[in-house]
């Protein structure tokens, strides 16, 4: 008996060690393999670096000028990274990766208390190995901090089976969500208040409101005092209401935009949403979560301006619903064939994604043969696992997803670095001017050079003598 217990303990130690290695590899190894990505990440990182260097943690400044488009939480995280001596990629990204992992720990523990360990394990593994969560855990933009804070508030607000609703910490987390991205988390939280309308007095009592105000108001008040009413006008009127109602920000998309985006963020687990839908009505907590997801999709779809990261806050709640449905499904093996099969398209994605990012999806020639063969082979693997290893199929599927994404990161990040990042341009030029570049690379070049660079065409023209090109007198 003692030997059996010792063997079981050794097996658990090895399992935990393997899991820790895989998680560390997934969330940490790729943080410096690609320079600042897209138009937003280099700008947010530069603001955080300016805060660390100037000591002014109230007024966000982009390239020396006040910049009020987003609240300060992400900038504070980045400034902390620079303050402890991290490099230009780790300072912005490591705090986001650590926040992501810390949330996964909380996510698992809270779900185990709200539901049971099966729901907690399924939901956490699905979230940790979903494309959207992993992608936004590797870039220093506001979507992941917002998602973590809002989802923390949402899970703390739920109650059931002897687990109370924790309104005070939920109010604090919701306040941090506002500091991450302003008004949207308040709108997304409305379904919780509608479902829990019998307890409105408890939500709007002095203590929850006081905690929320203590978190939210100090920075907003100080920023307004220092910068005048231009600050709240830009932050709230232009960036919140203007983003929802006007066409000025140039992110217009059709109303159905989030249908495919939402599924891609859940890749490869989105087929299991059907399992989640079958069990939503069986529990008040899952009905609340489903209400939040449905309301959020309608809300963001109604907005004029749409970006993929806007719906990331709905992904954790969807993973809870999926984990709940999977735990309540007797024969899980057949349902898990589809996610495993979808992993077979990762080789095709690695081929087309760099060109798609640079030139757009419409200009990419999709390798149908690679796509189809990968899908068939992976489906055959999933079918075989369903026949011979059904009880252990989900852990294997999660491990395959983790390994697949780790391979994709290792393959893609260096390619994307050369194709899309200003870091590569800066490393080969070190020029005092900027060539003609797409906006994302241009902002990255500014970030790595540490300043806004003049256009090389203007510099060359100004460098010419006044009689250049004319006849000599």
Structure write-up:
The chain has about 475 residues and is mainly alpha-helical. Among the domains are: about 330-415, no CATH class; about 425-460, no CATH class. It has 24 helices and 2 strands. Strands 1-2 form a two-stranded antiparallel ribbon. A hairpin with a 2-residue loop joins β1 and β2. α15 packs across α17 (about 315-325) and α18 packs parallel to α21 (about 395-420). It is globular and about 70 Å long. The N and C termini lie far apart (about 105 Å).
Considering the chains and any ligands shown, give keywords for the structure.
69% helix; two-stranded antiparallel sheet; disordered C terminus; globular; 2 strands
In short:
The chain has helices at residues 2-28, 40-54, 73-83, 90-114, 117-128, 131-136, 143-157, 167-181, 184-188, 190-195, 200-203, 206-227, 230-245, 258-265, 273-279, 284-302, 315-327, 333-342, 346-359, 368-388, 393-420, 422-429, 439-449, 456-463; strands spanning 61-62, 65-66. The protein is mainly alpha-helical and 473 residues long.
Describe how the helices and strands are arranged.
Layout: H1 2-28, H2 40-54, E1 61-62, E2 65-66, H3 73-83, H4 90-114, H5 117-128, H6 131-136, H7 143-157, H8 167-181, H9 184-188, H10 190-195, H11 200-203, H12 206-227, H13 230-245, H14 258-265, H15 273-279, H16 284-302, H17 315-327, H18 333-342, H19 346-359, H20 368-388, H21 393-420, H22 422-429, H23 439-449, H24 456-463
Antiparallel strand pairs: 1-2
Helix pairs in contact: 1-21, 2-3, 2-23, 3-4, 4-5, 4-7, 5-17, 5-21, 7-8, 8-12, 15-17, 16-17, 18-20, 18-21, 19-20, 19-21, 21-22, 22-23
């Amino acid at each position: 008996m003692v030997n059996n217990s010792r063997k079981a303990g050794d097996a658990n130690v090895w399992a935990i060690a393997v899991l820790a290695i895989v998680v560390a590899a997934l969330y940490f190894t790729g943080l410096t393999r690609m320079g600042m990505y897209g138009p937003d990440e280099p700008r947010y990182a530069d603001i955080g670096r300016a805060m660390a260097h100037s000591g002014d943690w109230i007024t966000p400044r982009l390239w020396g000028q006040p910049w009020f488009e987003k609240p300060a939480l992400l900038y504070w995280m980045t400034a902390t990274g620079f303050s402890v001596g991290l490099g230009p990629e780790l300072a912005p990204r490591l705090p986001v990766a650590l926040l992501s992992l810390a949330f996964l720990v909380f996510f698992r523990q809270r779900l185990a208390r709200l539901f049971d360990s099966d729901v907690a394990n399924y939901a956490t593994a699905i979230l940790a190995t979903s494309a959207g969560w992993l992608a936004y855990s590797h870039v220093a933009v506001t979507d992941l901090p917002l998602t973590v804070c809002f989802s923390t508030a949402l899970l703390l607000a739920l109650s059931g089976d002897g687990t109370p609703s924790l309104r005070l910490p939920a109010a604090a987390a919701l306040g941090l969500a506002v500091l991450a991205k302003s008004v949207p988390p308040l709108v997304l939280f409305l379904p919780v208040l509608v479902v829990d309308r019998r307890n409105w007095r408890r939500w709007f009592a002095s203590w929850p409101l006081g905690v929320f105000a203590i978190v939210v108001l100090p920075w907003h008040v100080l920023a307004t005092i220092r910068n005048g009413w231009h600050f709240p006008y830009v932050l709230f009127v232009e960036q919140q209401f203007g983003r929802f109602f006007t066409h000025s920000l140039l992110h217009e998309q059709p109303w159905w935009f989030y249908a495919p985006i939402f599924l891609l963020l859940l890749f490869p687990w989105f087929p299991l949403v059907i399992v989640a839908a079958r069990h939503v009505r069986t529990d008040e907590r899952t009905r609340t979560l489903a209400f939040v997801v449905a309301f959020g999709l309608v809300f963001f779809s109604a907005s004029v301006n749409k970006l993929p990261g806007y719906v990331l806050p709905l992904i954790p709640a969807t993973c809870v619903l999926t984990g709940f449905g999977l735990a309540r499904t007797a024969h899980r093996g057949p349902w898990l064939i589809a996610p495993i099969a979808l992993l077979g398209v990762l080789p095709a994605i690695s081929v087309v994604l760099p060109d798609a990012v640079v030139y757009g999806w419409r200009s990419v020639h999709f390798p149908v043969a690679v796509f189809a063969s990968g899908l068939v082979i992976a489906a055959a693997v999933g079918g075989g696992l369903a026949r011979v290893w059904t009880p252990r199929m989900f852990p294997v599927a999660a491990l395959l997803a983790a390994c697949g994404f780790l391979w994709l990161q290792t393959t893609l990040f260096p390619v994307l670095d050369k194709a899309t990042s200003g870091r590569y341009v800066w490393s080969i030029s070190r020029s005092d001017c900027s060539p003609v570049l797409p906006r994302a690379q241009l902002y990255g070049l500014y970030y790595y050079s540490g300043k806004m660079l003049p256009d090389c065409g203007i510099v060359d023209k100004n460098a010419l003598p006044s009689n250049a090109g004319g006849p000599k007198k």
